[in-house]
Amino acid sequence: MKYKLLIIALFTNLVYSQTNYQYNWGMSSTNQQITINVGDTVTWTWGGGTHNLRSTGGTESFDSGYYTGPGPQFSYTFNTPGVTTYICDPHPNSMYGTVTVTGTASVDEVNLFDFSFFPNPVSEIINIKFENIVNGQITVEIYDVLGKLNSKSNTALINNKVSLDVSSLSKGIYIAKVYSEDGVSVRRFVKD
Question: Domain range holding 174?
Answer without folding.
Answer: 115-191
